[in-house]
Amino acid sequence: MKKNRVLRNPWFAGLLVFQALPIAFLLWNLETQSQQTTDAGWMTSTDGQCKVFTNYNFQNRSFHWTGNCIDGYADGFGELEILERNRKILAVKGSLTKGKLEGKASLQFLTDGDLYEGNFVASTIHGKGHFHNDDGDHYAGEYVKGIRSGYGVYWYPPESPFLKYEGEWKNGHQDGPGTLYYRSGKSEQGIFEAGHLEKAIAGVVPNALPKNILITNDDGLEDMARLQCLAEAFSPFANKILIAVSSQNRSGTSNITQTTRQGYIEVKPLAVDSTRQIYTYQVEGYPGDCVLFGALGFFKERGETIDLVVSGINGGGNIGVEWFGSGTIGAARTAALAKIPAIAISGIDEDRDEQKPLARICQWTAALVQSPIIGSIKPLEYLTISIPEDLDQLRGVKVLERAITFEAPPFFLEKPSSAETAETERWQMSPLDRKGVYDLTAQHDVSLYYQNYIVVVPMSVDENMPDRLSSFLQYEGKIPAFPK
Asked: Are residues 261 and 276 located together in one domain of the fold?
């Protein structure tokens, strides 16, 4: 691995995309200090009209820029060619804001062909990225200020006996749960520390913590406190959090989307917490639109993807057949259809004094999000979680199926005489006791919910019926021919 060669062309702070060793830093600086400095500052374009920020050796660097120059700084999308002592060393393609690289970009090392493609924040590699070394090794995963940290996969050079490492990283090294694969077919799983397997454990599966999280609900702006509570609980481990909330209450709207009906969506930025990277937007649409805006708009524009959608916290448990119309669950279904892992949380009623129980649910949800069950969600799947009202009497957590069959519909329609006119009739929906319409002897979510268990129900948007297909195929030749 060419550590020194990577170091000879650093532009942004922390561009140590493989083994970010402090010793290598020290040796390289001692070796070259007579030729270069380590000062950060503003490079000036070759024509002297524009500036771009660099974290390294700005006195000896200049650049060509194909984009706009606004108020003396490179700004917008374009291509950047970096020169050091008039020698071309780097080619960058991406967007700059006031002279600093932001969002998704590519960085090509012109001296050897190495390539980085991924996210930047203030001209520093940060977020998801992919580094290709021309020796054949490469890394795809999370970076924190230019250093591999978080979940990532590293493929070794062709001559190495190792094939790849898959798992957690910290400060540029394998650190945490991971799996090391050999070219021979052997693999080792366990806990890594500073690049070494310290504790081999059979069956350990790396749990990639979600870094980019979208939070939404179906109650709209009136329930903003619940969304903010979740965002604060997630912020210690998340890189970026988007709160996307409907401008009005959208309860009972399932996974309907306004975007697909009218071809556009209007959003309004409400707040930015730059320290914790929490962004809040108001969306003129439905919970499904909030998911589409996050996945296909906000994160896509930044060259990133959503690792997890959290919908809720909804007032009252969405148990039994209530999943069918719930906007909270509709947001999770929309995410699952886009192959984004998602959970829908339902719990305490909106009308109760909720400050203390809300905080407890948010902290529990944060722990749930970091647990292995989230990493086990496959494409097209999502989880619904219903939390009973009495948090002090909880008996535990159960993972089980949803109740679909019931003895009677969970509501009925009645026609009050006062609502009838000459032209129209109003039939009012009147709910029944939910406990009374189901067969509560079965082990399903309704039964266990009313026994004071948190119920977790795995769901899927794949509504195919492979077990029934052969039965229906026998009627294929008996389907009437369409008239000519």
From this structure: yes
| 207 pLDDT higher than 60 | no
195-201, Cβ contacts within 8 angstroms, sequence gap of 24 or more: 195/19
Same domain, 220 and 352: yes
β-bridge mates for residue 75, sequence order? 68
Same domain for 138 and 168: no
Instruction: Give the pLDDT band (50/70/90) at residue 167.
Output: confident
Outline where DSSP puts E strands in 359-479: 381-386, 396-399, 411-414, 428-431, 453-460
How many CA atoms are closer than 13 Å to the CA of 384, on its beta-carbon side?
31
pLDDT at position 466 over 90? no
pLDDT tens sequence across 328-366? 999 999 999 999 999 999 987 755 556 678 889 999 999
Q: Are 460 and 332 in contact, with CB atoms under 8 Å apart? A: no
Q: Residue 53: CB partners within 8 Å, gap ≥ 6?
A: 40, 41, 42, 43, 99, 100, 123
Q: What is the pTM of this model?
A: 0.59
- State which residues form the domain around 100: 3-145
| Of residues 40, 35, 45, 125, the one with CA closest to residue 83 | 45
Q: What is the mean pLDDT of residues 436-451?
A: 75
Looking from the CA of 116 toward its CB, the CA atoms found within 13 Å total 32
CA distance 467 to 211: 37
Strands (E), 400-472: 411-414, 428-431, 453-460
Q: Are 174 and 168 in contact (CB under 8 A)?
A: yes
Tokens 């700005």 map to which residue? 58
- Residue 5: predicted pLDDT: 31
Question: Is 19 part of a structural domain of the chain?
Answer: yes
Q: Letter for the amino acid at 446?
A: V
Same-domain pairing of 183 and 295 = no
Q: Cα 469 vs. chain centroid, distance in angstroms?
A: 35
The neighbouring-strand residues paired with 213 are 241, 308
51 and 74 in contact (C-beta within 8 Å)? yes
d(CA 43, CA 55): 10
Asked if 272 and 195 touch (Cβ cutoff 8 Å), the reply is no
How many CB atoms within 10 Å of residue 140? 16
Classify the phi-psi angles of 57: left when phi > 0, otherwise alpha if psi is within -120 to 50, otherwise beta.
Answer: left
Asked whether residue 263 falls in the same domain as residue 193, the answer is no
For residues 257 and 300, state if they share a domain: yes
Residue 102: which of 83, 128, 126 has the closest Cα? Answer: 126
Q: Which two tokens stand for residue 260?
A: 């697909």
Nearest to 1 by CA among 117, 164, 135: 135
